[in-house]
Amino acid sequence: MLFCKKATKKAKTVASDTQEQIQTLRAQVEKLLNQKVTPALGDVADKAETAVSTARTVTNAQVENVSEQVRSQPLVAIGIVAVIGYLVGRILR
Q: What are the transmembrane regions (predicted)?
């Protein structure tokens, strides 16, 4: 009977120590996430936003450039589109 009480007490002590270690590890992981991961994600988001903005600006400029070329030389544009359509039709046959 004495052995059972000692074993039970030891098991409770080990369980308590394990819970404390888990809480300590949880706190350390949370601290690490807040110090390292969150700022890194913020930096990545800023870079992605900048890249999207730059891509949008370049795309808009290119669309405007092509539109201007089509307005200034509509017959050439129609010819180019016709040739591309013919080639795509020949390739897909």
A: 75-92
